[in-house]
């Protein structure tokens, strides 16, 4: 009993904190907005610290929730990314005219959703986490009430998201009719114990497909990626930063547990589908990114491409591959928070700083920001010795080990193509001349976040061992058997 | 038929902790330029940049002398820390200096230092002085990591680093969009090679894991290569060679190097002649054990090298830009190095890396001096008689031309002759003939270049002539040092038939084995005579033809017809790439973007909808189809997925 309470304690505290945040926001004027942001950051720090402190391996609450290494890893990742997004927001929101109180508490709830998704060992609980995260993000995406693009993006995201959630829930229900359980381990056991033939088998396939789609939507895998470019572009930059990193991490946390634990007996059927999804997702993302002129849209397609790389790891499905996906998500988080952070640091009302050409000659006017941005672009390309390189190296090595030779070849060729558009940003910043109306100086909070992201990106490349080690430990007990 | 190579001696390690400072010193220089460069001014930047490389040179010399003074097979190693470690995959940041890498670090730091010194004068009028030297120092650091690495992943760090610096330096004069795009091209073509490098490394790694030794250190790869399954060593070697063709500008990936001449001339000398482009040669020599285990791959290396040597030489005949001539000659000379590797004469290949670094850096810096003195004139048709105005540049350049042409007694003669003799001795007559032919053409176009630039009367704008001047001492001093090296550099490898003892090959033997020619003295002398005759024919012909001025090109044009035009346009390989790769990719991108991913939001933003109630607008669009379009796609996706799952399960059942 004590253990149950202890394992749940971080979540209980986090939820209470988020509720408290709403109350505080209600009573604080525009001027105390900074305080609210900091309160959110502190709350996330407390949540992260508590989850480390109360980490325990066995599942609790009737096998619904496990604060195991895997959950703690994603908890730390989501809290860090959430805190970074909050700090980025401080100046950005005021300038963009978003002085809406619920912003930070919504972001807090979204983080809680991610944490639940990672800790869930039951499909229903996982679904609750997914919805907690999604609802909060739908509102965040459309928080600029007067902005047409923001609104339409949010609406589209919501409608498609609702469809995906419905499909997922239907899939879970079908799985329940076949296996009689929604607990991941029990589903797995039921599936491997009995041979399902005929109609049962078809229902099982339908259920598997529907569940995959639900998560595929959240991680923006092709063909369920259509929302991503529009929503990334329409949402406020700070929210985009959060979606590209924390929301994607949440999607992968849930997807991996579901596919690699509950649906492990379906491996033979799933592997070719995942293989195809990975190949198509990275190729489409990279090829379409080539022709984008909006940096946000380009990063949206880049994030689709990275979903493809991450799916390579999921397809491999080994211990090694799983931990490499965990590491990749951390590196990917650092470089994307950084890239969006640079945009948020320089954007001003009426001057979105969202086109690639807005960064012309940035190296002359803002050498530090340009240097950081170049670093993130190079890391996204996979240039050593940066975090993105080590991430790719491990995912591809693991996939190669699992025998996915051709998928790795496709991924390597994709990396070549991706260099073209990431380099385009570097070229614009370094080789084009700055326009007459120079961009304003970088905002201090955002600049600090960018600097930290840059340092982390370098460290994950130069000295990745600690994070690699914790990723390996975090994943070591996830797979059954 | 193959001449016997003696066994590679087992390595005797000496652990030290100073090797790390060899790449670190220029890196500190970079930080200095970035942080303080703009505040402390030009003098400090130039001084620090050169001092940093001088420190590297001193430490490199220390390591070199240690290896030279110790028993054969000594390897100086510096284990810094464990970089990557997870499961079976580990890689350390370990630097090591053996005979092979000691030659490379001496060339990189030595020639690098001279070019840094030269740049102080050459870039004196440049606004972004600190940025230039930051890139130059960063390049040096990356190149040193590349040659000092004791394993493939760490080598890849330097490999990518030099590519990146090359990109930044080609585009250094960013006001010119053509130059920026040349830089991008260089980077992308190199990335294709890099994909080959990575896939090759993966292949070898997993094959080694199957042997129970998951490691990517060069020592392990070379030692266990013979035990690898044949497909693994062949695929691994070929993929790595793809990487080498990218970095070292060989067929089919050589197209970027001539464009790279858009960068400042010292950069062309350092990166695109003396150091970075030889990385591919170094890598193959470093992994000689692997390539020996895959004779077919080695054969490919030799054929590609010989073909590149010949093809690029023919292009060199028809170029009119002084730097383009030198660029194609670099591609051609790199071809000779791969030819050497391909016939198993690794020592000869590395020997040519070294002598080429001397004379090609000299030629580029000399060309830079001419360009500098003639106020940015690069077209040799508008030069002539420059010898009168620039005596030092002229004299040193002439020595460089004689060296590359293979005139007996100069460095290029010894190294090129060893390569050709090895090809002949190995029974590779085809490669040998390509090499001799290429040598003759090389002598021809280099003499053409020299005569048109320095001899006769000036054919350009007389204002340029009036202001023409010899370059300052910072620029002429490196020229003189390099000229001396281009003359005497070959004497470390005088073959036995000429009374020498081939000390260079002897020194390298512990790293790459000693390739014994096994030829009779008479045969060897005859071969030497043939290549000397070929060179002298080329020189003489060009001298006679071009003494009358650049119109002699017309003679060739009439003789060769359409082929000449092809040579001038470098056989239009660029157009082929554009049509086969670039355009299809761009078309695919456009097609996918416009059909699958409709830009709904932009349509709204560009329309007149700004004043409309936004939520209502959203709903309107929902009903007019865009979201429906998306949902339809999702449902099609659902159907496709279910179908795919069913199919794969059916196949699973059937199988």
> Which class best fits the helix and strand makeup of chain A?
mainly alpha
Helix share bin of chain B: over 70%
Say how many strands of chain B there are: 3
Q: Which blocks of ≥5 consecutive residues of chain A have pLDDT under 50?
A: none
Please bin the fraction of helical residues of chain A: over 70%
Average pLDDT metric of chain B: 86
Task: State the secondary-structure class of chain B.
Answer: mainly alpha
Greatest interface and its participating residue counts = A-B, 85 and 79 residues
Overall 3D shape of chain B: globular
Backbone CA Rg of chain A: 21 Å
Largest sheet of chain A: none
Total beta-strand segments of chain A: 0
Largest sheet of chain B: 3 strands, mixed
Query: What is the mean predicted local confidence, pLDDT of chain A?
Result: 89
Question: How much of the polypeptide of chain B forms β-strand, as a percent range?
Answer: under 5%
Instruction: Write down the oligomeric state.
Output: heterodimer
- How many helices of chain B? 28
In the predicted model, the low-confidence regions of chain B spanning at least 5 consecutive residues are: 1-7, 598-625
The proportion of residues in beta strands of chain A is under 5%
Q: Can you characterise this structure?
A:
- The complex is a heterodimer of chains A (481) and B (655).
- With 481 residues, chain A is mostly helical.
- Chain A has one domain.
- Helices cover 78% and strands 0% of the residues of chain A.
- Chain A has helices spanning 2-27, 33-53, 69-96, 102-119, 123-141, 148-179, 184-193, 198-218, 227-234, 237-262, 267-289, 295-316, 319-346, 362-365, 367-381, 387-401, 405-431, 444-462, 465-476.
- The longest helix of chain A has 32 residues, at 148-179.
- Chain A is globular and about 70 Å long.
- Chain B is mainly alpha-helical and 655 residues long.
- Among the domains of chain B are: 314-568, no CATH class; 589-654, no CATH class.
- Chain B has helices at 21-69, 99-122, 129-148, 152-170, 177-210, 218-224, 230-247, 256-259, 265-274, 279-286, 288-293, 295-317, 322-342, 346-373, 386-389, 391-405, 411-425, 429-454, 462-467, 473-488, 503-512, 521-546, 552-560, 562-568, 573-595, 600-606, 614-624, 626-654, and strands at residues 12-15, 74-86, 89-97.
- In chain B, strands 1-2-3 form a three-stranded mixed sheet.
- In chain B, helix 1 links the parallel strand 1 and strand 2 (74-86).
- In chain B, helix 7 runs parallel beside helix 12, helix 14 (346-373) crosses helix 21 and helix 17 (411-425) crosses helix 22.
- Chain B is globular.
- Chain B starts with 11 loop residues before the first strand and ends with a helix.
- The chains are: A mainly alpha (481), B mainly alpha (655).
- At the A-B interface, helix 6, helix 8, helix 9, helix 11 and helix 13 of A face strand 2, helix 4, helix 5, helix 25 and helix 26 of B.
């Amino acid at each position: 009993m004590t253990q149950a309470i202890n394992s749940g304690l971080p979540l209980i505290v986090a939820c209470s904190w988020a509720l408290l945040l709403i109350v505080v926001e209600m009573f604080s004027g525009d001027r105390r907005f900074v305080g609210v942001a900091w309160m959110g950051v502190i709350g996330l720090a407390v949540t992260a610290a508590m989850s480390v402190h109360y980490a325990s391996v066995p599942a609790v609450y009737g096998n619904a929730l496990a604060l195991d290494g895997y959950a703690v890893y994603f908890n730390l990742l989501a809290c860090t990314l959430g805190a970074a997004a909050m700090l980025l927001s401080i100046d950005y929101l005021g300038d963009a005219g978003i002085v809406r109180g619920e912003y930070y508490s919504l972001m807090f709830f979204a983080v809680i959703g991610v944490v639940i998704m990672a800790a869930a060992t039951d499909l229903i609980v996982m679904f609750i986490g997914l919805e907690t995260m999604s609802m909060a993000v739908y509102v965040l995406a459309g928080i600029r009430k007067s902005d047409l693009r923001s609104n339409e993006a949010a609406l589209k995201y919501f409608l498609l998201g609702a469809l995906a959630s419905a499909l997922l829930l239907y899939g879970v229900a079908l799985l329940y009719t076949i296996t009689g359980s929604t607990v991941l381990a029990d589903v797995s056991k039921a599936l491997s114990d009995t041979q399902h033939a005929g109609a049962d088998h078809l229902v099982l396939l339908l259920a598997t497909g529907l569940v995959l789609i639900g998560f595929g939507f959240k991680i923006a895998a092709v063909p369920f990626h259509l929302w991503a470019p529009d929503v990334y572009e329409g949402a406020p930059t700070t929210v985009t930063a959060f979606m590209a990193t924390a929301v994607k991490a949440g999607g992968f946390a849930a997807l991996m547990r579901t596919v690699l634990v509950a649906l492990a007996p379906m491996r033979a059927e799933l592997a070719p589908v995942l293989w195809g999804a990975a190949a198509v997702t990275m190729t489409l993302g990279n090829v379409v990114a080539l022709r984008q002129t909006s940096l946000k849209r380009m990063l949206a397609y880049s994030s689709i491409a990275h979903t493809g790389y991450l799916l390579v790891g999921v397809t491999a499905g080994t211990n090694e591959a799983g931990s490499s996906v965990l590491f990749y998500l951390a590196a990917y988080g650092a470089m994307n928070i950084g890239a969006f952070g640079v945009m948020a640091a320089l954007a001003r009302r009426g001057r979105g700083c969202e086109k690639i050409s807005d960064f012309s000659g940035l190296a002359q006017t803002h050498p530090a920001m340009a240097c950081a941005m170049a670093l993130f672009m190079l890391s996204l390309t996979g240039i050593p010795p940066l975090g993105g390189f080590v991430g790719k190296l491990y995912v591809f090595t693991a996939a190669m080990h699992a025998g996915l030779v051709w998928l790795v070849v496709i991924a390597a060729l994709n990396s070549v193509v991706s260099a073209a558009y990431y380099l385009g940003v570097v070229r614009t910043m370094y080789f084009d001349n700055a326009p007459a109306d120079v961009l304003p100086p970088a905002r201090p909070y955002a600049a600090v976040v960018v600097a930290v992201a840059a340092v982390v990106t370098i460290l994950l490349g130069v000295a990745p061992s600690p994070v690699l080690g914790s990723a390996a430990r975090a994943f070591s007990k996830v797979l059954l058997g | 038929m193959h001449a016997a190579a003696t066994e590679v001696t087992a390595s005797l390690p000496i652990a030290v902790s100073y090797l790390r400072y060899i790449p670190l010193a220029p890196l500190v220089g970079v930080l200095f330029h970035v942080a303080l460069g703009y505040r402390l001014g030009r003098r400090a930047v130039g001084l620090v940049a050169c001092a940093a490389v001088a420190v590297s040179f001193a430490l490199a010399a220390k390591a070199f002398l240690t290896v030279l003074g110790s028993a054969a097979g000594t390897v100086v190693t510096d284990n810094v820390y464990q970089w990557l470690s997870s499961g079976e995959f580990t890689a350390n940041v370990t630097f090591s200096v053996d005979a092979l890498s000691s030659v490379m670090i001496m060339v990189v730091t030595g020639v690098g230092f001279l070019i840094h010194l030269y740049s102080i004068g050459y870039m004196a009028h440049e606004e972004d002085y600190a940025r230039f030297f930051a890139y130059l120092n960063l390049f040096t650091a990356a190149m040193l990591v590349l040659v000092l690495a004791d394993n493939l992943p760490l080598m890849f760090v330097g490999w990518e680093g030099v590519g990146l610096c090359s990109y930044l330096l080609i585009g250094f004069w960013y006001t010119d969009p053509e130059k920026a795009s040349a830089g991008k091209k260089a980077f992308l073509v190199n990335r294709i090679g890099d994909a080959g490098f990575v896939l090759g490394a993966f292949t070898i790694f997993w094959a080694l894991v199957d042997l129970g030794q998951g490691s990517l250190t060069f020592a392990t790869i070379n030692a266990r290569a013979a035990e690898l399954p044949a497909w693994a060593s062949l695929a691994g070697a070929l993929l790595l060679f793809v990487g080498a063709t990218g970095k070292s500008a060989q067929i089919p990936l050589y197209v970027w190097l001539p464009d790279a001449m858009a960068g400042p001339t010292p950069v062309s000398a350092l990166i695109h002649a003396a150091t970075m482009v030889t990385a591919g040669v170094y890598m193959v020599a470093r992994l000689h054990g692997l390539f020996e285990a895959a004779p077919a791959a080695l054969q490919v290396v030799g054929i590609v090298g010989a073909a590149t040597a010949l093809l690029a030489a023919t292009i060199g005949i028809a170029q009119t830009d002084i730097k383009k001539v030198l660029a194609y000659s670099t591609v051609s000379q790199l071809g000779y190095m791969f030819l050497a590797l391909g016939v198993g004469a690794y020592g000869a290949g590395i020997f040519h890396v070294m002598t080429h670094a001397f004379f090609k850096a000299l030629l580029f810096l000399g060309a830079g001096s001419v360009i500098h003195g003639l106020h940015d004139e690069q077209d040799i048709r508008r030069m002539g008689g420059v010898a009168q105005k620039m005596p030092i540049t002229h004299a040193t350049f002439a020595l460089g031309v004689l060296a590359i042409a293979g005139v007996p007694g100069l460095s290029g003669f010894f190294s090129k002759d060893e390569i050709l003799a090895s090809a002949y001795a190995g029974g590779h007559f085809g490669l040998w003939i390509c090499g001799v032919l290429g040598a003759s053409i090389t002598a021809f176009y280099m003499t053409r270049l020299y005569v048109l630039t320095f001899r006769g009367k000036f054919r350009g704008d007389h204002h340029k002539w009036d202001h023409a001047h010899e370059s300052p001492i910072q620029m002429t001093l490196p020229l003189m040092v390099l000229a001396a090296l281009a003359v005497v550099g070959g004497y470390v490898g005088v073959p036995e038939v000429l009374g020498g003892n081939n000390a260079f090959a002897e020194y390298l033997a512990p790293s790459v084995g000693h390739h014994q020619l096994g030829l009779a003295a008479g045969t060897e002398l005859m071969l030497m005579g043939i290549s000397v005759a070929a060179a002298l024919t080329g020189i003489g012909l060009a001298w006679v033809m071009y003494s009358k001025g650049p119109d002699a090109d017309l003679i060739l044009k009439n003789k060769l017809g359409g082929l000449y035009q092809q040579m001038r346009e470098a056989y239009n390989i660029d157009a082929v790439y554009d049509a086969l790769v670039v355009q299809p990719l761009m078309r695919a991108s456009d097609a996918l973007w416009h059909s699958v991913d409709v830009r709904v939001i932009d349509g709204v933003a560009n329309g007149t909808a700004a004043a409309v109630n936004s939520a209502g607008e959203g709903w309107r669009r929902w009903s007019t189809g865009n979201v429906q379009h998306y949902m339809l796609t999702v449902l099609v996706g659902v159907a496709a997925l279910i179908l795919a799952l069913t199919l794969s399960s059916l196949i699973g059942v059937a199988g």
